[in-house]
Design goal:
single chain; 298 residues; alpha/beta; four-stranded mixed beta sheet; two-stranded parallel sheet; 13 helices; globular; binds phenylalanine; binds cobalt (II) ion; Phe-4-hydroxylase_mono; Aro-AA_hydroxylase_C_sf; monooxygenase; iron; oxidoreductase
């Protein structure tokens, strides 16, 4: 990665790990940060994955594929099939070449979670960071940190869609801007409710495009089950920026878009006035339904 713009705002590994340790009361991140460069890029070392890890990947892949038809959006399913990722943990470079040809994005390998600034810089330059390590067998159904299955299986297929790919780059640029404006908490909620847990309305019914759902054992079915206590409401950008989210349970609200173009157009506005306004009020609990909102039928 010698063509990355170096930038004096880059966060060193030591600084980042110290901040994470402080925030998580000493709990360490799992990845190997020792060998990361100043942009947190590592080598994938594909040859080093064990047969047991490839087996676990195949089992995860097959389980998700038993759940996703009729639930995941067509854009995701179609791209996933073209990616040939069913046979084991994929080599990032192969898919990265195909992805670059499709939408100009590349996949870069990272040790795990990376600092926000670095993350935004990668997205703003159409580079998607994918964690290299795979979860343990006992984490088959649930994992706290993103691993290669979540990052690759959940996120990469959507980057083959030109409009969504543009949205992700714009989000990265928006992140850099939000850091200057003190709007990071608000902007992170939009990522959560769209990129991770977003649903899209189609003529066939609601479909999933959020990676957090697509790579999850339980939430794929849950989020499309009628009669749960979770809400499905049309995405309003400012409302979403102001809505708290749950990280350790299924979502209490799913924001639904009508098209990726709608998502792109709605987020093209200048968020500076939104941040200013929202900073003065209180964020809404995750299960809020405002008087003028209608829940969509599942
Ligand atoms: N338009 C937003 C801003 O001005 C940036 C953004 C774009 C945020 C796309 C999210 C997604 O801050
Ligand atoms: Co993710």
């Amino acid at each position: 990665m010698d063509n990355i713009n170096t930038n004096n705002m880059t966060v060193s590994n030591e600084e980042f790990l110290a901040t994470v340790a402080e925030k998580s009361h000493g709990a360490a991140l799992r990845g190997d940060y020792e060998h990361a460069d100043s942009h947190y890029v590592v080598k994938q070392h594909w040859q080093a994955y064990t047969e047991a890890e490839h087996d676990l990947w195949r089992a995860l892949y097959q389980r998700q594929m038993s759940l996703l038809p009729g639930r995941a959006c067509d854009e995701f399913i179609d791209a996933l099939h073209k990616m040939n990722a069913a046979d084991g943990i994929p080599e990032f470079e192969k898919t990265s070449r195909e992805l670059f040809a499709a939408t100009g994005w590349t996949i870069i390998a990272v040790p795990g979670l990376i600092p926000e600034l670095t993350f935004f810089e990668h997205l703003a330059n159409r580079r998607f960071p994918v964690t290299v390590w795979l979860r343990k067998p006992e984490e088959f159904n649930y994992i706290v940190e993103p691993d290669v299955f979540h990052d690759f299986f959940g996120h990469v297929p959507m980057l083959f869609n030109p409009v969504f790919a543009d949205y992700m780059q714009l989000y990265g640029k928006g992140g850099l801007k939000a850091m200057q404006l003190g709007g990071l908490e608000q902007l992170a909620r939009l990522y959560w409710y769209t990129v991770e847990f977003g649903l899209i309305n189609t003529p066939q019914g609601l479909r999933i495009y959020g990676a957090g759902i697509l790579s999850s054992g339980g939430e794929v079915e849950y989020c499309l089950t009628p009669g749960t206590s979770s809400r499905h409401i049309h995405l309003d950008i400012q409302r979403c920026l102001n809505t708290l989210y749950k990280i350790d349970t299924y979502q209490e609200t799913y924001f639904v878009i009508n098209s990726f173009q709608e998502l792109f157009d709605g987020t093209a506005a200048d968020f500076a006035p939104y941040y200013e306004k929202l900073k003065q009020g209180q964020a809404l609990p995750a299960n809020t339904l405002l008087p003028d909102e209608t829940e969509l039928l599942v």
